[in-house]
Amino acid sequence: MSTLARLATLAVAAFGIVAAQAQIKIGVVNSQKAMLDTAEIKKAQGDLEAKFKPRQDQMAQLQKDLATLQGQLQSGKLTPAAQQEVTTQGQRKERDLQRLQDDLQADVDRDRNDILARVSQRMREIVTKIAAEKALDLVIDAANAIYFKPAMDLTAEATAAYDKSYPLTGAPASK
């Protein structure tokens, strides 16, 4: 075994002994749940649904129109010229529907990502503050933990602290 390898092994062993002797305080946060349970996310969800409802209604109407046109084509009562006209209308409505769906999805994704990025950054700040107040050495996401004691879970506390620091009125709470 080389000298470097021996030194590395000794360093790892020494770190393990020191770590075993020191009490490491750990907290766990289910960051996804903590963010989704905030009043801000719940309000944003309702706002997004209301904002995009007119376009969803427009898409639903286009789908009904397409079903009606499909029924006319399948009825067999149309002249060849009328069939061509209904087919052209159907193709136009299908294109319109596809464009609406694509635009709606892009807009929803953009708005949702903006909201989640803002809330995620704020939640990190809240969790860091809680960790400092509790003198925690490490906070891990519950998604990365196989097991932890429920007493280590800071999720509800993080959500409550978030709602207190960022109330829906828009003005941050005084610290």
Characteristics of this structure?
single chain; 175 residues; mainly alpha; Protein Binding, DinI Protein, Chain A; two-stranded parallel sheet; 5 helices; elongated
Mind explaining what this structure looks like?
- The protein is mainly α.
- It has one domain (23-165): Skp domain (Protein Binding, DinI Protein, Chain A), CATH 3.30.910.20.
- The protein contains five helices and two strands.
- The protein has helices at residues 3-21, 31-36, 39-75, 80-133, 155-165, and strands spanning 26-29, 138-141.
- A two-stranded parallel ribbon has the order 1-2.
- The protein is elongated and about 85 Å long.
- The N and C termini lie far apart (57 Å).
- Residues 170-175 have low confidence and may be disordered.
Q: How are the SSEs ordered, and which strands pair?
A:
Elements: H1 3-21, E1 26-29, H2 31-36, H3 39-75, H4 80-133, E2 138-141, H5 155-165
Parallel strand pairs: 1-2
Helix pairs in contact: 3-4, 4-5
Oligomer: single chain
Please give the CATH class. Alpha Beta
Structurally, the number of domains stands at: 1
CATH fold type? Protein Binding, DinI Protein, Chain A
Average pLDDT number: 87
Distance between the termini: 57 Å
Shape: elongated
The side-by-side strand order for the widest beta sheet comes to: 1-2
Q: Nearest-angstrom radius of gyration?
A: 28 Å
- In CATH terms, what is the architecture? 2-Layer Sandwich
**Main sheet summary:** 2 strands, parallel
Q: Uncertain runs with pLDDT below 50, 5 residues or more? A: 170-175
| β-sheet strand percentage | under 5%
Structural class of the secondary elements? mainly alpha
- Order of helical and strand elements: HEHHHEH
